[in-house]
Specification:
With 515 residues, this protein is α/β, with parallel strands linked by helices. It contains 13 helices and 20 strands. The strands form 3 sheets. Strands 1, 2, 9, 12, 13, 16, 17, 18, 19 and 20 form a 10-stranded mixed beta sheet that branches. Strands 4-3-11-6-7-8-10-5 form an 8-stranded mixed beta sheet. The protein has a two-stranded antiparallel ribbon with strand order 14-15. The chain is elongated and about 75 Å long.
Length: 515
């Protein structure tokens, strides 16, 4: 976090709840210190494959060694290397503008008003007339958009054309580009849709198939910038957005404006590391049933400044739960559970679950020995832990373990009440479910309309994937301690249980959505 003026810093400190002053127990103090190290400015946001990420990996490896864990990475070490390829649209040299019929242009701010999907095949420049085609299902797009850039309401809810359907329809119609307008009604979790965007990058495993329709510009539009594109059309941006949010019919119409862009695109091959460490089991009969506990080490790195800060420190997301894995390993001090427990710290979660996807394709134990996964991500200790949302609650028998552990702790576990968020495909549990391994993840839960919900929504609006997710933010340390104890007890319950976890009969695999 780049230092702000003293007056601003004082205001932040005064606004934080009293619980953020200091942890009261030694275990939580040690946990918080490690989070501070992992999310410090020196780690530069731990972007996938960056020097700061490598420094964070070194710290975690040292901690696992000190805890007496055994290396399970490549070549007998703790690291598993993931080969990657990046396409980036550079901020410098990239320009977007809307051109009116009289030749006047209105610039659009890159990464503030518009962002673009980065691919190796993007054209260096393009200019084309704009048309609006509602939700952009195939029938709405029609056959008259060849050579034009199609503007679509980017609906993300059930019953609306998906991003993939919109892209396929527009590409097959011969369009020159696709603009997805943010669906600002998608979920209350993220009404501002996280503008500004940190950067425009696509990262995938090296040698992976190219993105669908890679040469077609796919642009994301901040809904607040829609009036600029509609200027002179007689269309009301607010009315169109309201109709889209309400899933009412949307018109199709042509605009008199053009979108012009000049892009500077770069590519590179690089690598980034997972950390894999084993706590051996004590029961020879269960040696072939490994329990994975995981969190992701990567963050967003350095990106577009927000309130003068350009380092996306990622304290809660997910340095806090890498630290939770470390403190469990140290608490065990080499004393195993009945089953082996593999501590996995994955890279590239923020770029498409890259580290966990690589691991399930290149597991350090035979795939059939992966018995269950407990993923730590999206956990925000902002208020007392009374309700625990269980991601993947219906996919496996692990919900039974959760219920058994939570009940004596006074915690009520429940399914995700907002499945529209798609959390099941947004954590590192997803690739494991995709190969039939029972897996779960968690979020702090709340009652609808409660002060806890308001605090949760505020955190997502102001800190999620922003530089403000740093060590100075509000936290309920008692809630953090309660969750860490829950996690310890759950790990023991699953690793020591007589029966191996099982998928539910109706469960289907969950791979991350194709990019």
């Amino acid at each position: 976090m780049i230092r702000q003026p003293l007056a601003a810093l004082a205001a932040v400190l005064l606004a934080a709840p009293a619980a953020a002053a200091a942890p009261t127990d030694a275990d939580t103090r040690a946990w918080w210190r490690l989070i501070g190290q992992l999310s410090s400015d020196a780690m530069q946001g731990r972007d996938t494959g960056s020097p700061g990420h490598a420094r964070a990996i070194d710290l975690v490896v040292a901690q696992f060694k000190a805890a007496g864990l055994q290396p399970m990475g490549d070549g007998g070490g703790f690291r598993q290397t993931v080969p990657l390829h990046e396409s980036r649209v550079e901020s410098a040299g990239t320009r977007f503008a809307v051109r009116a019929p009289d030749g006047r242009t209105v610039p659009l701010r890159f990464l503030h008003d518009v962002a673009i999907r980065a691919t190796d095949a993007l054209p260096a420049k393009f200019s084309a007339p704009l048309v609006f085609r509602g939700y952009c299902g195939a029938a709405e797009v029609g056959a008259d958009v060849a050579g034009k850039i199609v503007l679509c309401f980017g609906g993300r809810r059930e019953g609306m054309p998906s991003a993939a359907v919109r892209l396929d329809a527009v590409a097959k119609a011969g369009a020159a580009g696709l603009i997805n307008i943010d669906d600002i009604g998608y979920t209350q979790e993220q009404p501002n849709w996280f503008w500004p965007v940190a950067y425009a990058r696509s990262i995938d495993r090296r040698g992976a198939p190219p993105l669908a329709h890679a040469a077609l510009p796919v642009i994301r539009l901040n809904a607040a910038a829609l009036p600029t594109l509609l200027a002179g059309s007689g269309q009301d941006a607010a009315a169109l957005l309201a109709a889209g949010v309400a899933a009412r019919p949307l018109p199709g119409f042509d605009l008199s404006t053009r979108l012009e862009a000049e892009l500077t695109v770069s590519q590179r091959d690089f690598s980034s590391d997972n950390v894999l460490a084993l706590l051996p089991g004590t029961d020879p009969a269960l040696a072939g049933e490994t329990i994975v506990v995981d969190a992701h080490i990567d963050g967003y790195g350095i990106g577009t400044p927000v309130k003068g800060d350009a380092i996306y420190n990622g304290a809660f997301d997910d340095a806090a739960y890498v630290a939770t894995l470390v403190r469990l390993a140290k608490a065990r001090a080499g004393k195993g559970f009945r089953r082996p427990v593999l501590f996995a710290v994955f890279t590239g979660e923020e770029k498409g679950l890259l580290g966990s996807r690589w691991f399930v394709d290149h597991p350090s134990v035979p795939r059939e020995q992966l018995a269950a996964t407990i993923t730590l991500d999206a956990i925000r200790p902002l208020f007392p832990l009374k309700i625990l949302t269980v991601i993947g609650s219906d996919r496996s028998s692990l919900m039974g373990n959760v219920e058994a552990v939570a009940a004596p702790m006074g915690i009520t576990p429940r399914p995700d009440l907002e499945p529209v968020r798609g959390m099941i495909t947004r954590t590192d549990a997803s690739p494991f479910l995709g190969i039939g391994v029972p897996a779960i993840a968690f979020m702090f839960g709340y009652e609808p309309g409660s002060p806890e919900e308001a605090r949760f929504r505020t955190w997502y609006r102001t800190r999620y994937h922003k530089p403000q997710d740093d060590i100075g933010q509000p936290i309920d340390f008692a809630a953090a301690l309660a969750f860490n104890r829950f996690f310890d007890a759950l790990t023991a319950h699953v690793a020591d249980a007589p029966q191996r976890p099982a998928m539910t009969p109706a469960a289907t695999g969950d791979r991350p959505p194709g990019r």
